[in-house]
């Protein structure tokens, strides 16, 4: 099994503005033709509305939660934003 990496975004963690829902959707559709599995690492949902929209284009979203740092309210807000955008949260990863 081979892994290919396609970097996107900026060093500050924000998605570039040209990465709109339409462009992202077209890219994901093309990648689905070539790959069995696609993993996207996106900025925080609460920090960028584009991230929630991106969640609606994929099969599932894993929330990454920083142990001892991320407040419960922030997780609830992220889940709300994803639900509102049509994203499907399939689980969470507790990270340090």
Give the arrangement of secondary structure elements.
Blueprint: H1 21-34, H2 49-55, E1 61-66, H3 72-85, E2 89-95
Q: What attributes does this structure have?
A:
alpha+beta, 96 residues, 3 helices, 14% strand
- The tally of domains stands at 1
Identify low-pLDDT runs: none
Shape annotation: globular
- Provide a count of the helices: 3
Order of strands, main sheet, comes to: 1-2
Structural class: alpha+beta
Q: Main sheet?
A: 2 strands, parallel
Proportion of residues in β-strands: 5-15%
Which percent bin holds the helix content?
25-40%
What is the N-to-C order of secondary-structure elements (H for helix, E for strand)? HHEHE
Q: Compute the number of strand runs.
A: 2
Calculate Rg over CA atoms.
Answer: 14 Å
Q: Give the averaged pLDDT, no decimals.
A: 85
Termini separation (Å)?
Answer: 29 Å
Can you tell me about this structure?
This protein is an alpha+beta fold. 36% of the residues lie in helices and 14% in strands. The chain contains three helices and two strands, in the order ααβαβ. The protein has a two-stranded parallel ribbon with strand order 1-2. Strand 1, helix 3 and strand 2 form a beta-alpha-beta unit. The longest helix has 14 residues.
